[in-house]
Write the C-alpha cells for this entry.
Amino acid sequence: VRAGASAFLCLVAAAVVADAREVTITLPEVPAVLRASPMPGYAIAERECTICHSPDYINFQPPGMDQAQWTGEANKMHAAFGAPITDDDIKLIGAYLAVTYGSAKLTDPGIVPLATAASGASQGAQGGGEGSGSGSAAGAGPSVQALLANHACLGCHAVDHKVVGPSFNDVAARFRSHPGAVHELSARIRSGGTGTWGTVPMPPMQDLTQAQADSLAQYVLAAPGGAGK
Ligand code: HEC
Ligand code: HEC
C-alpha cells in the first residue's frame, strides 16, 4: 500500500513541475509606445497620456475614430480622471490622435490650425490688443470652425486645392512672409475684392468683427502649404 501511495505522489509532483515550466515561458517584450508624428500633440501626449496607463490604452482603441471622438477621449481623461492638461493640450492631443490613429487628415480644416507647433503661441501673440470682447485667442479653434461654416468660406475655398477661390495653402504660401500678414489678410477678408487670384470676386464679409477676421486670417495662414514654397 505504501509503495503505491508514494508512486502516486511522485506522479503528482512531476505534474506540478511540468505545469510550472509551462507558466514560465517568457513572452517577447514589445515596449508600448505612441506612434510618432511631427504634430505638436505627439510630444504632449507622450508626456501626459502615459502617466496613468500604458500607451496601449490608446494603441488598442478601434480604428477610424474622428477628431471629435479623440478630443472627447482626451477631455474625458482630464475631466473624469484628472489628467493634468489644459484645454489647448486637449485640442492638440485630440488632433494628433485623430490623424495618427483615427480618420482625420492633416488637411482637414479642423486639424490644420492644430497641426503646426506655432499656431497656439502665435494666435496668442497676434490676437492681443483687439479688445472686441469676442473671447480669447486661445479659444479660436471652435469659433473659427463656426465662422467658416456661417460664411460659406468652404463653399469657395479648400485647404489644398482651388475651388472658386484660391486654396488656403496657396494663400498662406503667398502671404506668410509678409510682415503684418494677419491684418493684411483679415482686411481683405472683410472687404472682399478681386484681381489677386483671378477675375472672380471674393464677396465682402463685413459682418465679421476685426477679431473674427483676424482669427480667420490666422487660420488661413496656418495652412500647411504656407510652410513650404
Ligand atoms: C490621471 C490619470 C490618467 C491620465 C493622465 C490619462 N488617462 Fe487615460 N485612462 C485613465 C483611466 C482611469 C482609464 C480607465 C481605465 C479603465 O477603465 O480600466 C483610462 C482609459 C483610457 C482609454 C481607454 C478608453 C476609455 O475611455 O476608458 C484611453 C483611450 C485613454 N485612457 C486615453 C488617454 C489619453 C489620450 C490620455 C492623454 C490625454 C490619457 N488617457 C491620460 C486615466 C488616465
Ligand atoms: C463666393 C465665393 C467665396 C466665398 C464665400 C469666400 N471666398 Fe475667399 N475668395 C474668393 C475668391 C474668388 C478669392 C480671390 C479674390 C482675388 O482674386 O482677389 C478669394 C480670396 C480669399 C483670400 C485671399 C485674399 C487675397 O486678397 O489674396 C482669403 C484669405 C479668403 N478668400 C478667405 C475667405 C474666408 C475666410 C471666407 C469666409 C469668411 C471666404 N474667403 C469666403 C471666393 C470666396
Remarks:
- Residues 151-153, 155-157, 164-166, 171, 185, 188-189, 193-198, 200-203, 205, 216, 220 surround heme C (ligand 2) (CB under 6 Å).
- The radius of gyration is 27 Å.
- Residues 73 and 207 are 35 Å apart (CA to CA).
- Residues 119-140 have pLDDT under 50 and may be disordered.
